[in-house]
TrEMBL record:
UniProt organism field: Shewanella amazonensis (strain ATCC BAA-1098 / SB2B)
GO biological process, one term: cytochrome complex assembly
Listed PANTHER family: ABC TRANSPORTER I FAMILY MEMBER 1
Keywords: ATP-binding, Cytochrome c-type biogenesis, Membrane, Nucleotide-binding, Translocase, Transport
Name the record gives this protein: Heme exporter protein CcmA
Length: 217
């Protein structure tokens, strides 16, 4: 399925994005739009520019040329509104090793402006019941990642931009995440993610793919 370009109903859209790193053009004049209910997978080999694209879409880095829009406004002009509606999880995902799982979740949810939540309940949803007091640095790789992902279960943000959310997550955890993504999309949100894994529950008719090729120049 190919991605359409910006329309009046677009939630997030990219217009003619060009990204250059170390004199290599990663992508050039890339345009597409993401609507409510969309689940978009950015595909491509290592080094193709997937993370670079997600960071540009999230407003964390600037493109060489082109613009990103949230609804109808360029993200630089609606920064506060966009940030309120955006949940971005990068590779490192903001989990601090010296804090416990509970402290990390508490910190991340409060940073996102939430103050009414039960950390134990949210951590239980990512199978971390009993590990609330464990230092994140002492958790397994999958549990560490689950600590980061927990905030998805308590998010009102419409736009989820997720860089490799399934890394180190077991099969059951991947299925639970896929279910959550479908529910989020059904509720009018959108998910833009990268993954090298095939998704079992999110079938082709629900998934739109954007493939980045590795470019040598
Ligand atoms: N801030 C930066 N400064 C210089 N080069 C960068 C920067 N960020 C990324 N790059 C380079 O851009 C290229 C694309 O990196 P990016 O992380 O976007 O790829 P990716 O498709 O996400 O790869 P992977 O599948 O390995 O995660 C790489 O060659 C990387 O070295």
């Amino acid at each position: 399925m190919t991605l359409p370009t910006k329309t009046a109903h677009s939630l997030v859209s990219a217009e003619k994005l060009t990204c250059i790193r170390e004199e290599r053009i990663l992508f050039d004049e890339l345009s597409f739009s993401v609507n409510e209910g969309d689940i978009i997978q950015i595909e491509g080999p290592n080094g193709a520019g997937k993370t670079s694209l997600l960071r540009i879409l999230a407003g964390l880095s600037r493109p060489y040329a082109g613009s990103v829009f949230y609804r109808d406004e360029e993200i630089g002009r609606c920064r506060d509104e966009f940030n309120e509606d955006l949940l971005y999880l990068g590779h490192l995902a903001g989990v601090k090793s010296e804090l416990t799982a509970e402290e990390n979740l508490n910190f991340n949810l409060r940073l996102s402006g939430y103050d009414d939540f039960d950390t134990g309940e949210v951590l239980a949803k990512v199978n971390l019941k009993g590990f609330e007091e464990a230092l994140a640095g002492h958790l397994s790789a999958g549990q560490h990642r689950r600590t980061a992902l927990a905030r998805l279960w308590h998010s009102n943000c419409k736009v989820w931009i997720l860089d490799e959310p399934f890394t180190a997550i077991d099969k059951r955890g991947v299925a639970e995440l896929e279910q959550l993504f479908l529910k989020h999309a059904d509720n009018g949100g959108c998910v833009i993610l990268t993954t090298h894994q095939d998704m079992g529950l999110i079938k082709d008719e629900r998934l739109r793919k954007l493939k980045l090729e590795y470019r040598f120049v």
